[in-house]
Specification:
This protein has 408 residues and is an all-alpha fold. The chain has 18 helices and no strands. It has a single domain, classed as MFS general substrate transporter like domains (Growth Hormone, Chain: A). 80% of the residues lie in helices and 0% in strands.
Length: 408
């Protein structure tokens, strides 16, 4: 074989390898679905803490309860949507229902006139998130080969987080355009939410069911109990991470307390999300190559540094550095944990496994946000972030003490 022939052979092999690693179109479509819904959600979320605390007079404790219940609701709902998606073997229909519910609740935010009406709107919006999250993640796993699954979840997470960056930036521009009229700005969240649902309906293709309708058997509790020890390790790890990481709403009010103008408060979520988006896909690729454990350990170390900066940092540069580190820890860990759930659960139980994972992390989110709000009001903001650093430190010690396991 001459040099020209060898070159052509190597080129063909390289093209074949690239083709095998190319992610399915459905993963991209789900990523853009998430992107536009996050533009909508984070446009609201970037303004909601100051809307509640400054405009409607809510306390930090009330903010913690609302955010804790909202996020816990999203996670707990995942149990039922996961079980249903496994039983019906229809992921897309549930995803459409969840994204659709979130879309139709967006007008409730600008219409709300009291703290508890905002709480109801947030509650319904998070039910939609809970319904859609598991079928979407299970569908990503269903259509992606195991050797590129980390990259697939990283890409989906990155596109999701790009939306979470654009949303707050859009909110900043609209706040200036409409002279800090938060209610008017919140109405604009309806548009990207509608685009998100349209992309999902038109471009996401679901593989055919693995089992004929007349032979499907509902998932039973006994099967859930038989999920392997490695899966339960991932569940516990996810819960501990969530306990150490309360709602990002507290980052927003921390920056506002340090002098950030009202119109610029969405920049908190934008900065966090930008770093999150930049880190998530590379983290997924690194997980495919080196495993998850180094990324999880690094994520906890970064979270500790973020909490210490947010507790003791003076002035907006220090606060925003802490916010950036918070986003980095999210990028290093969130897609990795999702890929681990997919890897450690059998395909038949994949949706249910994501749901149980969501239940445990949801309960941890509720506890973390309530504790954060109470500490903020009773002791002070420093105590909130020091408690987060303490939980993250305990988790880091636990991870370092555990021997490396084959799949983690």
């Amino acid at each position: 074989m001459n040099s020209s022939q060898r070159f052509e052979t190597l080129k063909l092999l390289d093209l074949e390898t690239t083709s095998q690693k190319r992610l399915p179109k459905t993963v991209w479509a789900l990523g853009f679905t998430s992107l536009f819904m996050d533009v909508s959600s984070e446009l609201i979320h970037g303004l909601l803490p100051v809307f509640l605390v400054v405009s409607l007079g809510a306390s930090a404790a009330a903010l913690g309860v609302i955010e804790g219940i909202a996020e816990a609701t999203a996670h707990i709902t995942r149990v039922f949507s996961g079980w249903l998606s496994d039983t019906l073997q229809r992921r897309k229909a549930l995803a459409v229902a969840g994204y659709g519910l979130a879309a139709i609740t967006k007008p409730l935010f600008p219409l709300a006139s009291t703290v508890w009406l905002v709480a109801v709107a947030r509650f319904l919006d998070r039910i939609g998130k809970g319904i859609r999250g598991v079928p979407r993640d299970a569908l990503v796993a269903d259509v992606t080969p195991a050797e590129t699954r980390g990259a697939a979840f990283g890409l989906r997470q990155s596109l999701d987080t790009v939306g979470a960056t654009v949303g707050p930036l859009l909110a900043i521009g609209l706040m200036y355009l409409f002279s800090d009229d938060i209610r008017t700005v919140l109405w604009f969240a309806v548009i990207p939410a509608a685009i998100s649902v349209a992309i999902l309906v038109l471009f996401v293709k679901e593989p055919p069911p693995r089992t004929p309708r007349d032979k499907r058997v509902p998932i039973r509790a006994k099967e859930i109990a038989e999920l392997g020890s490695l899966y339960w390790f991932v569940v516990i790890a996810g819960a501990v991470f969530t306990l150490a990481r309360f709602s990002e709403a507290f980052l927003v009010i921390r920056a506002h307390d340090q002098g950030l103008a009202l119109a610029l408060t969405p920049a908190v979520i934008a900065v966090m999300s930008l770093v999150f988006a930049a880190a998530a896909y590379p983290a997924g690729r690194l997980q495919d190559r080196y495993g998850a454990r180094p990324l999880l350990v690094a994520g906890l170390a970064v979270l500790i540094a973020a909490d210490l900066l947010l507790a003791f940092g003076k002035g907006l540069p220090a606060i925003f550095l802490g916010i950036g580190l918070w986003g980095l820890h999210m990028g290093l860990t969130q897609g990795v944990l999702s890929a681990l759930v997919a890897e450690t659960a059998p395909q038949r139980l994949r949706g249910t496994a994501f749901g149980v994972f969501g239940l445990m992390t949801g309960l941890a989110a509720l506890a973390a946000s309530i504790l954060a709000g109470v500490l903020w009001d009773v002791v002070g903001p420093d105590a909130t972030f020091l408690a987060g650093a303490g939980f993250a430190g305990l988790a880091l010690i636990g991870f370092l003490a555990i021997r490396r396991r084959a799949s983690v």
